[in-house]
Amino acid sequence: MHPLWSDVHQHLPRVWRTVRAYERDPAAQEDLVQEVLLAVWQGLPRLRDPARLPAYMLRIAHNLGASHVRQAVRAPARGNLDQAALESIADAASDPGDADTQWLLDALRLLPLPQRQVLLLQLEGFDYKEIAEMLGISTDNVGVRAHRARKALQEIHDGHQ
Known about the structure:
single chain; mainly alpha
């Protein structure tokens, strides 16, 4: 067993949050997390700096999540996903439980993929420079995407109150 594998488990909640923002279906979420863990396991021997493990894991989660979304877009439509997300947002707003988290996840699914990725990584505590490195874009582009994502979330929020 790789010596960093126990550290992988410490960061698993972050992977789950990321996956939940890409996929609503719990069974598909589990499949996607398994894909992420397999990719992490296979790539651990190539990880040179153990301190970069969280960023490494989330980069894999975001890349696989983005691939998952792209595949879903190419697949035949299973109904109006935007309408389902909007209904879920409305339901979450009336549920006093974990409504804020569910609302955010549902709203994030409505964002274009580039904006969603930046905002999710920002919510996980990464700064613009780290996000730029993870996504292979400039820090200026990270700022633009983050601004657009926050603006879109505000519009979604204002439209469903």
